[in-house]
Amino acid sequence: MKDTREIAVPSKTKEILMKHGFTMKKSLGQNFLTDPNILRKIVTAAQIDKQTNVIEVGPGIGALTQHLAEKANQVLAFEIDNRLIPILADTLEDYPNVQIQNQDILTADLVQVTSEKFEEKLPIKVVANLPYYITTPIMMYFLESNLEIAEMVVMMQREVADRISAKPGTKAYGSLSIAVQYYMEATVAFIVPKTVFVPQPNVDSAILKLTRRKQPAVEVTNETEFFQLIKAAFELRRKTLWNNLLHHYGKNETNKKWLQESLQSATIDPSRRGETLSLEEFASLSNAMEKLRP
């Protein structure tokens, strides 16, 4: 008789791991979710249907992949751990619309691989339980790629999700908040308790929903320099904006004059701290710096 239990059911997860003699690698941040209700909530939050192609990162033994496959047109899952490839072939054998790519997502040419693997050109969504140790690089890789992503619904440490969705003037607000919010609208969909994972992590997780803006949140004349300014403004967290800018761009007289004039032009008080500036104020300062650059 066929086993109809979902992969995420704790007893089924345990059986799969034992059958294949699989042990978690801490270095790869492997924590498997064992609560089917939470997986259903993730798929609902992502609004997956047959008009959607999905990219998943780190499918593990296929618990979330199974739920995605039931709703999506196609699923392309990137798994770096080659020990999991035969397990996924076993657990997902009933889902012909799933393809597993044994590759580090950070080395993938996303535009090329999706055009090869997805048969139909449909909106692409990224839905994943991201490995904690590499959450930010993976997210930025997607955002800065040329791949058109309609939405990302990703699980990460609660603290990181709070930082990404943070507003100016809050403790969590920083360069990561701005970098992501420049491209996407960010909201925390719901919290996932640490108790539903095997092995149990030290902290709770959050599901972060990121929706692609039609165009970036602000207009900047030089995107590279804009992100350089953001980095500079948060370099020394407790310092004023003025001190951070001098530290980053150099303290010679030419630079001092340039920075003073730029701040004046953007009507920004140099004694403020970086975390009090909105996205619009950073854009205004960046554009002034670009215009007045010596």
Walk me through the structure:
By secondary structure, the protein is α/β, with parallel strands linked by helices. It has helices spanning 10-19, 36-46, 63-71, 85-91, 110-117, 135-144, 158-164, 175-183, 223-233, 241-249, 253-265, 279-292, and strands at 32-33, 53-57, 74-78, 98-101, 124-129, 151-157, 184-192, 197-198, 205-212. The protein has a seven-stranded mixed sheet with strand order 4-3-2-5-6-9-7. A two-stranded antiparallel sheet has the order 1-8. Strand 5 (124-129), helix 6 (135-144) and strand 6 (151-157) form a beta-alpha-beta unit. Helix 2 packs across helix 3, helix 6 packs parallel to helix 8 (175-183) and helix 9 packs across helix 12. The longest helix is centred in the last third of the chain and has 14 residues, at 279-292.
Please outline the helices and strands.
Layout: H1 10-19, E1 32-33, H2 36-46, E2 53-57, H3 63-71, E3 74-78, H4 85-91, E4 98-101, H5 110-117, E5 124-129, H6 135-144, E6 151-157, H7 158-164, H8 175-183, E7 184-192, E8 197-198, E9 205-212, H9 223-233, H10 241-249, H11 253-265, H12 279-292
Parallel strand pairs: 2-3, 2-5, 3-4, 5-6
Antiparallel strand pairs: 1-8, 6-9, 7-9
Percent helix among the residues? 40-55%
Shape: elongated
Q: How far is the N terminus from the C terminus? A: 76 Å
What percentage of amino acids are in beta strands?
A: 15-25%
- The average pLDDT score comes to 94
